[in-house]
Design goal:
The N and C termini lie far apart (76 Å). α2 (37-52) packs antiparallel against α10 (250-272). The chain has 10 helices and 8 strands. With 275 residues, it is of the alpha/beta class. The protein has a 6-stranded mixed β-sheet with strand order 2-1-3-8-4-7. Strands 5-6 form a two-stranded parallel sheet. 40% of the residues are buried. α2 links the parallel β1 and β2 (58-63). It has helices spanning 2-17, 37-52, 71-80, 113-121, 126-136, 174-182, 195-200, 211-217, 242-246, 250-272, and strands at 24-29, 58-63, 86-88, 138-153, 167-170, 186-189, 206-209, 225-241. The protein folds into 2 domains: 24-96 and 123-144 and 235-272, Bacterial extracellular solute-binding protein, family 7 (D-Maltodextrin-Binding Protein, domain 2, 3-Layer(aba) Sandwich), CATH 3.40.190; 149-233, 3-Layer(aba) Sandwich (D-Maltodextrin-Binding Protein, domain 2).
């Protein structure tokens, strides 16, 4: 009887001092809704993480529809190790930390989609990714994108003469402004979520994007003409905070890298198929 009482007391004491295992929560961010290719790629990342985490408890909170701002803010948050742990971000928004970053999807870099896929599969972008990780403490764990970018404009344009001095919105990295200037246009940098109103109010006449972005943001309503310039093929790195990554054990780190690569490839298939 004394042994039973002692055993019961030991169990009760252990239960009293036991600390419940807390599930890790990772926060993602997307400018778009559930239907966009980028959001779907991040949802796939979450699914794959749960598959590859070896049974470890991990929760995901994906903030959609620009709830946490825009991609530029997401990247800054990840660099600081706060608010956002993973997100898909345009390389143009990484230029503050790395001058090489915007060259990841610079205009006229790829001949076609086959060439684009070959470059990504060969991991040729690794030196740029390493520089970004070193300078910004943000890891590029996968590559989404795949949409061919064209110019949407509020009037018909059929040749270089007709696009001369065209006021067109471009991404923030200098290489985009310089390229469009070289083609005779008048590029200007405007926040992505302000493009629709800027065209509607006559501040600009055009923008450039892939089909998924044009449809999501309804740019066709204010700029119904599409100039098939095919000037770039979108690459959107799936990023992960280096500070968050360093807090993980080796098995979880391996899961992040594997899930990120596969989720990026999944996102490329979706977006390239939407053009």
């Amino acid at each position: 009887m004394r042994k039973l009482v002692f055993a019961a007391a030991s169990i009760a004491t252990a239960a009293a001092f036991a600390v419940p295992v807390q599930a890790q929560t990772l926060h993602g961010a997307s400018q778009f809704n559930d239907d966009h290719a980028f959001t779907k790629a991040m949802v796939k990342f979450e699914e794959l993480m749960k598959k590859y985490s070896g049974g470890k408890s991990v929760n995901f909170v994906l903030h959609k529809n620009s709830e946490l701002g825009l991609e530029k803010q997401y990247f800054e948050y990840m660099a600081q190790g706060k608010a956002v742990d993973y997100a898909i971000v345009s390389p143009a928004h990484m230029s503050t930390f790395s001058k090489a970053a915007p060259f990841i999807d610079a205009p006229f870099l790829f001949r076609d989609l086959a060439h684009w896929n070959k470059v990504l599969d060969a991991d040729i972008l690794k030196p740029v990714a390493d520089e970004i990780a070193q300078k910004a403490d943000v890891m590029l764990i996968g590559y989404a994108g795949g949409g061919t970018r064209n110019i949407f404009v509020n009037k018909p344009v059929k040749n270089l003469a007709e696009i001369k001095a065209l006021k067109v919105r471009v991404q923030g990295a200098p290489i985009w402004s310089k390229t469009f200037q070289a083609a005779g246009m008048a590029p200007t940098v405007i926040a992505y979520n302000e493009v629709y109103n800027a065209i509607q109010n006559g501040v600009i006449a055009a923008g450039e994007n892939e089909a998924a972005g044009v449809e999501q943001m309804k740019f066709y309503e204010v700029a119904p003409h599409l100039a098939m310039t095919q000037h770039a093929i979108t690459i959107r790195p799936l990023c992960f905070s280096g500070k968050t990554f360093k807090k993980m054990d080796k098995n979880m780190q391996a899961a992040v890298l594997k899930a990120g690569k596969e989720a990026g490839a999944y996102g490329r298939q979706i977006e390239s198929g939407e053009d």
